[in-house]
Automatic annotation (TrEMBL), chain A:
It comes from the Bacteria. This is Molybdopterin dehydrogenase. Residues 1-177 form the FAD-binding PCMH-type domain. One of its GO terms (molecular function) is FAD binding. Keywords: FAD, Flavoprotein, Oxidoreductase. The keyword Coiled coil does not apply. InterPro entries: CO_DH_flav_C, CO_DH_flav_C_dom_sf, Diverse_Substr_Oxidored, FAD-bd_PCMH, FAD-bd_PCMH-like_sf, FAD-bd_PCMH_sub1, FAD-bd_PCMH_sub2, Mopterin_DH_FAD-bd. It holds the Pfam family FAD_binding_5. PANTHER family: XANTHINE DEHYDROGENASE SUBUNIT C-RELATED.
TrEMBL record, chain B:
Residues 792-807 have a biased composition (Polar residues). Keywords: Molybdenum, Oxidoreductase. Pfam families: Ald_Xan_dh_C, MoCoBD_1, MoCoBD_2. Residues 20-135 form the Aldehyde oxidase/xanthine dehydrogenase a/b hammerhead domain. Residues 784-807 are annotated as: Disordered. InterPro entries: Ald_Oxase/Xan_DH_a/b (IPR000674), Ald_Oxase/Xan_DH_a/b_sf (IPR036856), Ald_Oxase/xanthine_DH-like (IPR016208), AldOxase/xan_DH_MoCoBD1 (IPR008274), AldOxase/xan_DH_MoCoBD2 (IPR046867), AldOxase/xan_DH_Mopterin-bd_sf (IPR037165). This is Xanthine dehydrogenase. NCBIfam families: CODH_aero_grp5 (NF040766).
Amino acid sequence: MKPAPFVHHSPRTLDEAVAMLGDVGHDGKVLAGGQSLIPVLNMRLAQPAHLVDINRVAGLDTVTVSDDVVRVGATVRHASLEKNTEAYAVLPLLRQALRNVAHPAIRNRGTTVGSIAHADAAGEMPSIAVLTGAVIEVVGPAGRREVAAADFFEGPLMTVLEADELVEAVRFGRFAEGTRTAFLESARRHGDYALAGVGVAVDVEGQGGDAVVRGARAAYVSVTDVPVVVDLTEAVAGQPFSSAWDGVEDLVQAGIAPEADIHASSEYRRALAAELTRRALTTALSEVAS
Amino acid sequence: MTTRQFGSPVLRKEDPRLVTGNGRYLDDLGHDAWEAAFVRSPHAHARITDIDVDGAVEVEGVIAVYTHEDLDGPAGDRLPLLIPHPSIEAGRTGYALAKDEVNHVGEAIVMVVARDRYIAEDAAQRIVVSYDHLPPVVGIEKSRDGAELVHDDAPGNVAAHLLQEVGNVEAAMAKAPRTLTLDLEIERSACMPMEGKGVLAQWDSDEQRMRIHSSTQTSTGVRAAVAAKLQLPLAQVECIAPDVGGGFGVKIMHPWPEEVLVPWAARRLNHDVKWTEDRREHFTSSAHERGQLQQVTVGFDDDGRLLALDVKFWHDNGAYLPYGVIVPIITATQLLGPYKPQNYRVEFWSLYTNTVLVTPYRGAGRPQGCFAMERTMDAIAAELGIDRTEVRSRNFIQPEEMPYDQGLLFQDGRPLKYDSGDFPASLAKLKALVGWDDFTVYKEEAEAQGRKVGLGIGCYVEGTGVGPYEGGHVHVETSGRVNVATGLTTQGQGHQTILAQIVADELGVSIDDVHVTTGDTRRMPYAVGTFASRGAVMSGNAVALAARAVRAKALRIAADALEVAEEDLQIEDGTISVKGAPHASIALSTVAVMSNPLRYAFDESAKAATQFAGAFDPDKPPVADDDEPGLEGKDFYSPTQATFANGMHAAIVETDPITAEIKILRYCVIHDCGTVVNPMIVEGQVHGGVAQGVGGALYERMEYDETGQLLNASFMDFLIPYASEVPHIETDHLETPSPLNPLGVKGAGEAGTIPVSAVIASAIEDAEGFPIRSMPISPNELWDLRRHQAANPRSTNPRSSTTQESA
Ligand SMILES: Cc1cc2nc3c(=O)[nH]c(=O)nc-3n(C[C@H](O)[C@H](O)[C@H](O)COP(=O)(O)OP(=O)(O)OC[C@H]3O[C@@H](n4cnc5c(N)ncnc54)[C@H](O)[C@@H]3O)c2cc1C
């Protein structure tokens, strides 16, 4: 389990990085936190001749909160985004989801943008990107372009990124005032990739005892090939907070297409996804109630 | 006065070194060694038609590429069948490098030696092996039906077949008022030490000497095997186990192909060669354990008393049988636990499959046996509507029946005769600890809140400390430093501490002055190894005996010098003094000086022992006829039979009513390993054992597909429990000393692991209200079982639907 030989490039500026990728991108890979790429190299599942290491590129490690987005640079670690109180205040779903990404040691190295670029169907953050209507900032030899998260993912481990492009940042969209969120997942062991997971954004109008549910949307982990948003509004609008949410079942089942692997059957994942959705709705609303 | 070390929770002497990163594991050694990598079979069963190494030889930095054809002499012969047994009908072992045929994914075919491991892997990747595919035999059922064969000359895929019977099962079963039959299944798991295997070989061509470091549980075994394979005089081979990052059984197997090949290549190349196993190799090329199908038929009376027990099981031994039938023999014998079956028949078939070897893994066949017996106990209780602990009590061997001979032959070829234990007392302690009698109320309350909880129990007896022997050597230096050597190896258990505790007490010295060396054939060439929970029993008693010899000699010399009788002397804090007259004393270090008559005074203290130093008897030689110079002693401990530890565990689990997720709420252990040398270390062993048991119960399984590919050969997909999955473990001890050895100790190493699958199955069964007959169990499987149960309320288990219950 040693990687095949490669040349390690360590650009200091974004321009340098883009230029290098332009030269070697066809036979190269961007190296961010390495938590997904290094195992792939060690097992020789990929043997790129070049690695363009972006860890020393200046200016990529910042989180910026503005009126309508949280912008996360390419080398921001999962852990630092998770702990970012400003981001948490405006978009708690980020921390709610990030807590479920692997273990602390991996979150200390792995990057949130890297996990979106990696596009693992079992990754939490691609789903969060889609649920928040994120925009992916892409840069390459041909210049900059922006891609909506909903259009970014093409399949498991496949995105619209060209070999010579890199993601500079992801702008997660903030929800409208009154939106409540929760993220729940079920994994075989604490911190593992989930058998199924769900993030929900529930639209609530009013305060305290007068509050009513207006709508809800959910995005799933490990039960769809590419992250999709399932609109649950039809089943939840007007329901009391104490609802058992049985009405969401059909919408969830229509929206997901889980596959079986050695850890769980597709039927079980379906049942999990539905139950997690019900529990997530209750969790999201329990915060508004308290 | 010196505080007694034996029995106190002395902090581990090895920890400051290990936890500060100063351990020296195999890969920390041999920086200048060339490194080896292997081309391993990607197929489970195939004939090798061609090996093209041309691409590899061209790679810059490659030193040598070897296939089976290159292996000369015994190195090219089949690897040994280590433990022959009359039940073995077709004992097949592999070659160090595959010859013509491969029988499991991961079998080594080509060895590449290069300047470093990176280059070796680059080169290995360029080697092209051509194969003719043969039908893979995977899974016990496929093997048992015998339509396709793993080895052409092993009909029915049967490696071994054994039947043992005590009493008359057929007659007793026919007369039994009630019978039950259970079909049971246990999946494969594996030891998975954090450090894989590894070998460093250093050939000294001037001295024609081979030094091997191996991450092994038996350095004497490796030494002897390499000497035989390389046709070297034993005296020219030495083997040292450095710090070893866990073994759990897989490293008692030997010689691994690499343990032959690395020294073989080092001699041939006249250069140090090293191989460090990586995790993927460990998954597919080391060894697994556990996989069995079992059928138990039990006859009992209306009170739940056993009248007859008839067990058949099929044991998956993988592609080869180098470790013989130790694992199924242990299952067959240790299945009986603390019970008296009256009449017992056990028959097993050890079967070949095209999967990696099966050799002992902590518990070594016992978890399977315990599972069979304890599932049976629960089934009897359910059938009769009697409390599960009551059924067990009624079948216990009573303390006054000790020693109790089960009438079978154990894994050491000696009688399965329990030496000690008080099972009713252990059960009473367990029930108190877990709150057995209050659980019904707790369960009703939980159910009222929509929660599902269950309580489970499992009991076991563990034959530990099997022979043939272990040795101890104790040497007091003139500085007062005490060197202790024993040949068995250590993998983190704390041997350096407990052996030092024992010697410190025996000699009357401070534990800080005692320094223990294990697993180094230069220091103790006669030894067996670390397995079967034998460290404390075998080496503990051996070093105690050796220390007693040293003590006797020290007292003799001191008595002479102080002109008193030996009986009047005591040793405390490294000083020998006259009882009641402490000023009349002599330091043990001085006695060490006096024990060795000298010509040369190399330091101040040595002057006292030189020829002109003082009075001596001119009629006696400086060293008496029956004596030796130096204050040292050596002795061996060799018992007539194993000692039998025992324990009982109980757990409370909660299962999610919808997602079927399984959570262990409480885990309680009562443990009897005889006299406890160090309670903290015993507790640590129990904790680690339970953690591995939880892995086997809820997480770990080897997912082979029907073609023999291991689908989960990484820690991403082979689920070892993290700390977050291991419950808090509550322990209590019972000490019934073994009458068989001077220290009264019984083994503790494997205990924690043995009953966990049985206990968790019992608890889930209690929570769910239907039988659990197959382990491990995942949430998905429990969810499937619930659905199956809802559709077929009378059935027991979809995976063992043949179970019949008759009144
Ligand atoms: C034991 C373990 C458990 C894990 N569990 C989880 C989990 O539960 N959930 C989860 O989501 N993840 C999990 N991960 C993965 C972890 O989150 C990774 O960090 C993440 O998926 C990738 O981020 P990285 O920075 O490490 O990327 P790298 O490993 O460096 O790169 C991954 C891929 O993305 C590409 N890439 C990275 N950054 C960019 C960029 N800016 N532009 C273009 N391409 C880029 C790389 O070229 C590579 O192909 C786990 C990892 C491990 C080792």
